Amino acid sequence: MPGSTKSDTKLENEIRVSYKSDALDYVYKAVVLFETHDEVILSGVGKAITSVVNVAEMVKRRAKGIHQCTKIYEKEHTIKREDPAAAKKDDKEEEEKKFVEGEPQEGEENDKNKETENRIIEFRTTVPCIKIILTKNDTNVDKKEVGYQAPLDDKDVNVMTPDQILKEKSYRRKYRTGRGGDRFRSSYRRNYYETPMWNNRRFEKRT
């Protein structure tokens, strides 16, 4: 199956999904890539796994004949942090030295920098990752592989162009932000404040 899960280099047809960004942004990128590529790869790490799945489902409902292959794996991640216990201990010793000896010299400052480097702790952890391969060409697809999903029925697909996706995105931002949408809340408040009942209450509060 094309698209290795072990490569860290980003491919031309690969989209790395973040859990903070809007899903329609990635859907737009995927639809644009399908105009020049037969295959699009969606990848994510950690919290972005659910976002990758959502983007894949949205793309499949906006383009016909897309085969899906999902791969889940783990990746080692190295984290470097400063030991807080050693840092507190060294800070106390520095304060005592300043109180007794005064300000440190240049040579002493270099020694402090070396000590801070020695206080750094390095440990490894595993992070869950996902890679979803969406392709229109089923020649290189193993349909018996675990994680394979056949294309959706045509009745469940609403084919959209990139321009239509941008319009959908602008529509959602304009009318679907907040509970009930801004258009309903703003019109409700405007009509409520313009009623004579509100004006009477406001007048009563002033007096």
From TrEMBL:
Pfam families: Alba (PF01918). Keywords: Nucleus, RNA-binding. Residues 80-117 are annotated as: Disordered. InterPro entries: Alba-like_dom_sf (IPR036882), Alba-like_NAB (IPR051958), DNA/RNA-bd_Alba-like (IPR002775). GO terms for cellular component: nucleus. It is found in: Nucleus. It comes from the Eukaryota. Residues 13-74 form the DNA/RNA-binding protein Alba-like domain. One of its GO terms (molecular function) is RNA binding. Its main location: nucleus. Residues 80-101 have a biased composition (Basic and acidic residues). Belongs to the histone-like Alba family. This is DNA/RNA-binding protein Alba-like domain-containing protein.
